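Researcher: Please generate the 3D structure of the following complex. Treat every line as part of one assembly.
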Amino acid sequence: MAALLGAAALVASGCQGGAMTEYRFSKDAESLHSLATEGGLLADGVVDSRTTSAFVLTHAQELASDAEKLASVVASTQPEPGLGGKTERLAALARLAATQLRVLADHPSDPAAAAAIKAALNDTADAAEQLEKSL
Amino acid sequence: MTKVFQISLGILAAIGGFVDIGDIVFNATAGATFGYQLIWAVVLGAIGIVVYSEMCGRVACVAKRPVFDVVRERLGYKVGLTTLCASQFVNVMTCAAEVGGVAIILRHLFGLPYRPLIVVALLLLLVSVWFLPFEWIERIFGFGGLLLIVFAVAALKLDPDWAAVGHGLIPHIDTPSPLIWAYFVVGILGATFMPYEVYFYSSGGVEDGWVPPHDLKLNKLTAIVGYSLGAVLSISIMVVAAELFLPAGIEPGFLGTVALAAQTPLGEAGLLFALLGMFFAISGAAIDTSLAGAYNMAQFFGWEWGKYRKPAGAPRFTLTWAAFFGLAFLIVITGVDPIFVTELSVIFSVVALPLTYIPILLVAGDSSYMGEHANGRLASGLGWFYLVVIVVISLAAVPLLVLTNMGEG
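Model: Done. Output below.
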């Protein structure tokens, strides 16, 4: 049981801070791409009135919270040589996605606002994908 | 109609193994990561849990011995106590995750803050278990959980490549990350064999007053239909995630993400069915775990137990299930992520897995207990095969957890 608890603690401690390697950069960029794409899908439901405002409000908040955490984790890393600029850009994109998702949470039943946010989130997702491919 | 109601025990027990909070997200992640590649693992697990649930239901029916009674007798006090401690740890962790899950679903339905909704979830669960008779708990939460069939409808609407879905029934590895693939296989099988399902199922058989020979057929039907439905729901979530999330590069990390998978093809009705189905399934799993914890304690220490008794007729049993909800509340109110808790509890259950299933197999095959109803060749062969599977899962779980960083690579 002690070994299990130790293993769990090791995993739970996660990857806060530490070095930003190419592998980790790629994983974080994938996570950002995922969050932004999902946000776009959520906004799409508002555009077509195929969802509920309670769900959009709460799920957009969850996604925004995750994007904020990602931004904080990425910003706290020490990038390996050649990754400094890209890491800063990734952290900035994660902060941008968080802001966009917060705006969606503030307008959970406004199709016009949702259409604009959807486009913005899709752009953020594309930018995260480009960053990942740039390695 | 009576027959349909009678199998509700199997449905409610199956919900814990296939569509509780952790399984819902884990299955969606499996589909979003590996497409249809892991469908075979769900089917393999479903057959295994049918085999063992039928066995422990048969033991409960014939010998009137639920699982923990058998565990203590076959393993002795010390090993039995170890099994009890490991099982109770997993039960309380899982119960905490489920209580948090109910609050998350209420939040998605009503848009209210999370922490007050944990209190609402706790009260709903306490009131349900206190006031509802066992058979109505089975029916309401078992059949309510079947609203998740909306994912099967969503899967049909998305019209997947059925040949590829069929290919998923055959074990194969088509990924550059075989360790992560193995982690997901172990996670799916581990969740399917979560020990509290058989504790709940066998004690439920006693609660429902099963008697041989008539109820032996009912036991078989309940196990087969209940767990098969659970497997269908599980596979449906996997298929929908494979269709929607894999091509888009979305990694499902929330219950809301999975609900979104029903909304995308089916609109608002799909979303509401998915959220309500999750509400009943996760509430049912919370009740499974709290009652399983109380059954275990009562059977191990020889207390009066059973929901068929009034609370005053089994006071320590009643206090124990209420305490499980209380402990779960204290854990989840700290703000810990319920999905993280449930995924960890699946891994921790590896300690209890073999120690739970070995005594069931030994007693179900012992003709001095079971007489003419002891395991035949088929049940015995399948039982030993799945025991090997369970031991392999137990040995592989922790190394894979560490090596793959909980499947995240």
